[in-house]
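sorry for the late reply, my laptop died twice this morning and i had to redo everyting from scratch. anyway the thing you sent over, i finally got around to it. pasting the sequence first so we're on the same page, its 395 residues, then the predicted structure underneath. double check i copied it right bc i was rushing
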Amino acid sequence: MRSLDALTREAASLASGGGRAVIPILSEREAEVGRQMQICNACRYCEGFCAVFPAMTRRLEFGHADIHYLANLCHNCGACLHACQYAPPHEFAVNVPRAMAQVRGQTYADYAWPPSLGKLYQRNGLTLSLALAGGLALFLILAVAIKGTLWGAPLQGNFYNLFPHNLLVGLFGPVFLFVVFALGMGVSRFWRELKPATSGAPLNVPAAAEAADAVLRLKYLDGGHGVGCHDEDDAYTLRRRRFHHFTFYGFLLCFAATCVATLYHYVLGWHAPYELPSLPKLLGVAGGVSLMVGTAGLWRLNRHRHPLQSDAAQKPMDLGFIALLFLTSASGLALWLGRGTPALALLLCLHLGAVMALFATLPYGKFAHGIFRTAALLRHAVEKRLPNPVGLGAD
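ok and here's the structure:
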C-alpha cells in the first residue's frame, strides 16, 4: 500500500498542474514531531505547560513551517515528558522534548548563512571549541614570545602596550560584523517562513512587549506552574532557569561593558585601561562573575540531565558553547586581577584566544538558539491574539 506521504505529494503535484509539488517533503525528524503533535493534540493534558501546546491546538495538521515554529518555541523543560501517559516505554513513544530538540538543531543548520557552513553545527563540539581556543592562544603566545615580551615585560599594567587598540579593533570588528550579519540573514529566512504559518499578521507593540517579557524572564522554564522544570528526574527545580539567568544577564553585562568602553574611547576620549569604580569595569566584573556562575551550573546540569530529555547528538555543541563562555569570563577576570604582575602578557594571550574562538563559533553554535527562539516567541505573541481558526465558532 502506498504511503500517505506519497499520496499527499502526488495530490499536491496534480493540484499544481502536474508540476513540482508545493508541499515541502518532511525529514524523518520533522515527520516524527508531526506524529507526536497529532497524539498530543488529541490528548491535550499538557496544554498549560508552555507556549508549544496552545500553539499546537490552533492547528489540525503540521507542515514544515509549523514544525520549525513549534520546535523553536520549546524550551526543553521536560515537564511534558514526565506528565505524559504515552511516553516511553508506551508503544506511542511520545517524547516531545527530544523530538523538538532534534528538529531545533536541524533548523539551525538549515537556516545558517552562508548555507554551505550549516554543517558546522554538527561539527562544533567541545573538542573543537577547546582546540580552537587553545590553538589561537598558542599562536598569540608564540608571537609575543618571539618578541621577548611574554613574561615580565614592562607593560605598566596596560595591555594596549602589547596589542594596540586599533589592532584589536581591526581583528575583532570585522568578525563581529560578520556574526551579526550571518545571524541576521539566518533569522530573517526563518521569520519569512514562520510568518505565513502563524497568521501572517504583522508584529505589534503589545505582542513585542509580551515576547520580550517571556525572553527576559525565561518564562517558559518554570514548567507552566512556576515551580520549575526537570533535570535528573521528575522532581521540579528552578536551577536550570536560574543558571540560564546568570548566563544570559552575565553575557549582556559584558556586552554592555564593551559598548560603554567604546563610547568612552571614541566619544569622550577616555582611553583604557579602566579601573574600579569606572562603569565599564563594574559592568565587566559583574558580568564575568555572573557568566562563571551560570556556565558552571549549566555544565553540571547538562552532564547529569535525564537522557530522555535531550538530544545526545547536540550535547558536544552545548558543552562547547558553555566551555567557551566560561573560559572567556574566567580569563577576563584573571587578566584584570593579574594586570600588575609579570603574567599580564600570558593572561592576555589566553583571554584573546578564548574570545576569538567564541566569536568564530557564534553564528554556528548554541548561541543561535536564543535568536531563533526569540523570533518564535514573537510570532506566538502575535498569533495568540487572533481568533483560534480551529476552535468553537471558528470560520
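The chain has two domains: 4-113, 115-382.
thats about all i looked at so far, will dig more tmrw
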